[in-house]
Structure formats: C-alpha cells, structure tokens
Input
Amino acid sequence: MIDSLPPLRDVIATHDLQPKKSLGQNFLLDLNLTAKIARQAGDLSGCDVLEIGPGPGGLTRGLLAEGARRVLAVEKDARCLPALEDVAAAYPDRLKVINADALELDVLAHLTPPVRVVANLPYNVGTELLVRWLTPKEWPPYWDSLTLMFQKEVAQRIVAQPGGKAYGRLAILSQWRCDARIVMQLPPEAFTPPPKVHSAVVHLQRLETPRFKADAAVLSRVVAAAFNQRRKMLRSSLKGISPDIQSHLVAAGIKPTERAEQVPIEGFCALAREVAK
Ligand code: SAM
Output
C-alpha cells in the first residue's frame, strides 16, 4: 500500500461515486499502477504537478506518494470533492483541489514553477487540452513536461512519423516543440469500468526552443487544413490558406503535388513561415 488511506474501492463505495460516462469516468483503482504512472513524469520532488480530472484520487495519491511538492487537481465533478478532501488531509499543505471545468479555468495563478502536468484525462477533452498546452504563442510554456493517458490510437498519433496514416496535426504540434514517447500501455481491464479501447501513457518533454521557427497559430492552421483532406495534393487542400499557395509551397521546398503525410515537420514550419510573410 502506498499510503494509509482506504483502498479506492472503499472510497468509491463510501462517497457513492458511481462512474458517469458523460464525464469520461474510467477510474484507476490500483495504487501500484497509479504510482507507476506518476513515476513516468520523472522526479516530482521539486515540482508543482497539475492534475486534470483526479476523480476519486487514485493518480493524485500516486503523485503525492511519489513525492510531488504540491498537486493542483482540477475536477469538474463535485461528487469527488469529499474523497479528495480526505487525500488533502493525509498530505497537509500539498494538495489543492479546484472544482472547475479544466477547459475554462486559468490555472497559472495557482501554480509555481517548475510545473509538470500529469493526468488520466477524460477522453472527450484530452485532445483539446493537449493542443492548447502545445500551442501557446510564447515558448517555453509554463510547464516542463506532460505525462498523459490517451486512447492508444491517439497516443500513436502523437508519436507518429511522416509517411503513415497516424501522422498528422497531433504529431506535428507535439514533436515540433517536444520530445514525445509512449511510456506505458494499459489494457481496458486496468480501468473501472473498462473502456472499449486500449490506453497508453505519453510523456512529452518540452524543448527549450521549437525544432524549427514558425508561428504556432499559422502552423496550426496550415496543418489542420493539410490533414483535413489528407489524400488530396497540398496545392488543392491548402487553397483556402492563401491564393498564392502554389508559390508558397515551392518557396518552402515542398512539391505542390505532394500529400500532407509525406511532408516532415520542418517542411510545414517552412510553409508556415512563407504563409506568414
Ligand atoms: N484520475 C482519475 C483516475 O485515474 O482514476 C480519474 C480519471 S477519469 C478517466 C477522468 C476524470 O476527469 C473524471 O474524474 C471526470 O469527472 C474528470 N473530468 C471530465 N471532464 C472534465 C473537465 N472538463 N475538467 C475537469 N475534469 C474533468
């Protein structure tokens, strides 16, 4: 046992935390597993950890037991608050819980760097949060690393290389500014209730400067358009980006007849620079 708090099954029964599908609630109840996920984030002892969606607190307990300086846990479901208060009491001054929608809350005021983000994300908001964390205007961002659970297929899209079906917007936005690796794979039975899909934990370590120069908003727009019609040639899928797209592609060193999935990150960054000129 990693702490002296009750087992998570008892916590769920005591606080009547029947999992809700609408909130993406697939809970991790094995504290050895949550501690292992926490360890994938590296040394937490000098860090604030931002956790989105703590639920009954399994991963939160893993993070605290593994030595996080402080955890800021943002949970939308108010039913989970009493259980999380018990965790806060067991780790005095180290856990702050905010009852809010992570898509609405400005977390910066509540965090002191260095910050690591660790979360078993609700699948319905996971990708949206990831893209927001990856696309602030200024780089480096407020966080050092992201250690996040995703549906396995989404994890594969984050680490994908050019040339395959998984390569697209998520791979480019992730690997442009971070080193990204899959560090754990989890079967459906690891969760309660088990989801239909397999899951994987991705660790993204930010780079101090992006791999190639580009404006995040322009790159994001170009890549979204290119992969929205991924089987088309770029000169046609990117028509809406600029009337001069053909010459921008040539100036960026990309053949206008190329398809999006053949173009490496460097090519898209060069194109974003041309479009922004
Ligand atoms: N971390 C817990 C665990 O590993 O057992 C729970 C993970 S569960 C997959 C996702 C959690 O995110 C749920 O507790 C859910 O209520 C919460 N959640 C869903 N949408 C949210 C949002 N927009 N903002 C904050 N929390 C949210």
About this structure: The CA atoms of residues 172 and 230 lie 14 Å apart. The chain has two domains: 2-206, 216-276. The chain is about 35% helix and 20% strand. The pocket of S-adenosylmethionine is lined by residues 23-28, 52-55, 58-59, 74-77, 80, 101-103, 120, 122, 125 (CB under 6 Å).
